[in-house]
Design brief:
alpha/beta, 2 domains
Length: 393
């Protein structure tokens, strides 16, 4: 990493920065083998084609040094900032925009926020980029969601970078880095678009969207291939987010239903469904385990369930729901193999057989790894139409 980043020893963003990329993959492979021992054979990790400049989202903080604003990476442990002229995991576009923002913040007298003294205006900036479209959205997180000469500021910024299609300012008083509240568009539109797996998606300032779009296509295509979908299959997509997996598999199945607790994500999923003229997908904003019970009681049946939970893994009541429904196949995608293994052990006790595991390196130079696991279970009678019991084990 020394050839690409001069501050990697100070910055905690790249935990594996002391290793070359081949050694990183070998280490992750070894870790997966240990985790999944006695459960399933671990396949060879699918590495990233490019381990650098892969992030489509950059969150930056700013600091005055010798009278000029510079950008860097925030360290939550000590509320410090590691300044850098560029980040090798961010795109060239993001690094160039960051440099321009520093110049404009000085020109328009917009002071960086000091997290230790709790004073200043610019808390952080999030740069989101559509890899396929080239469109860029800027979210300025500030102490207030307004500042003087906004229009002139945005005009200057867009002159330097015509790829910027949206500038949004949000307000935050938190000691932590957040995306802010009270959003207000001060330039362009409220969202940008990107293409993933041949589909178009709207991306807002707070939309969950995978950080590495190139490897995301590898991840989703691998998961869908594992599912071995047919035109007769009904699919449940649990923790569906903005519907990326749901819509990616819609063309290969009879019907797909996506469920997600976050209402704004479901609204985005419905918009993306219309955007891509997909007619065999439905989306519900609800707790997944509750929605499964409702759907089953209405006579819905599912042949396959895609599961892509947050790092904490699956809720135990959700696992009870899908195992009681006796969904024949589960494709479990996880950004945290440790909690995934915990959940797999439970499902194994409920009669599921762990058939296949595949690692995908989504985050080079970090310790993180995505894991896909295929599970299957023989149906017993017509149990799939039964109500899901809510009593504890």
């Amino acid at each position: 990493m020394e050839n690409y980043c001069k501050v990697y020893k100070k910055c905690s963003g790249c935990q594996l920065s002391n290793l070359d990329y081949l050694s990183q993959v070998k280490l992750k492979q070894s870790n997966l083998r240990k985790l999944f021992s006695n459960l399933v054979k671990v396949n060879k990790i699918l590495p990233a084609a490019s381990p650098l400049n892969y992030r489509n989202k950059a969150q930056l903080v700013f600091k005055k040094e010798k009278g000029k604003t510079r950008f860097g990476i925030y360290q939550s442990a000590n509320k410090g900032i590691v300044l850098t002229p560029s980040c090798p995991l961010h795109t060239d576009t993001a690094n160039e925009i960051a440099a321009t923002l520093c110049m404009l913040f000085d020109r328009f007298s917009l002071a960086p926020f000091d997290f230790k003294r709790r004073q200043g205006f610019i808390r952080s900036v999030v740069i989101r980029e559509g890899f396929m479209t080239g469109e860029v959205l800027i979210n300025i997180i500030a102490s207030k969601n307004t500042f003087s000469k906004e229009k002139e500021f945005c005009e200057r910024l867009s002159t330097f970078h015509p790829c910027i299609k949206s500038v949004i300012i949000t307000e935050s008083q938190s000691e932590k880095l957040t995306c802010g509240g009270n959003p207000r568009v001060i330039f362009g539109s409220e969202f940008i678009t990107d293409t993933l797996c041949g589909l178009d998606f709207k991306i807002g300032y707070n939309t969950f969207y995978q950080i590495n779009p190139v490897q995301t296509e590898v991840l989703y295509s691998t998961a869908i291939k594992m599912a071995n979908l047919t035109k007769e299959d009904s699919v449940l997509d649990a923790y569906c987010g903005i519907g990326t997996i749901s819509l990616a598999c819609a063309k290969d199945c009879k019907k797909v239903i996506g469920v997600e607790l976050n209402e704004s994500s479901i609204e985005n999923a419905k918009e993306n469904c219309k955007l891509n003229n997909i007619t065999n997908a439905e989306f519900y904003a609800n707790d997944v385990k509750k929605q499964i019970k409702t759907l089953l009681n209405k006579g819905e049946r599912f042949d396959i369930c895609f599961v892509d939970p947050p790092r904490m893994g699956c809720d135990i009541e959700f696992l009870k729901s899908i195992s009681s429904a006796e969904i024949p196949k589960i494709v479990y995608i996880s950004c945290n193999p440790e909690t995934q293994v915990r959940d797999l052990r439970y499902l194994k006790k409920q009669g599921y057989e762990i058939k296949k595991q595949q690692g995908v390196d989504m985050f080079p130079y970090t310790k993180h790894i995505e894991s896909i696991v295929l599970l299957s279970k023989e149906k017993s009678g017509d149990c799939i139409r039964m109500s899901v019991p809510t009593n504890d084990l």
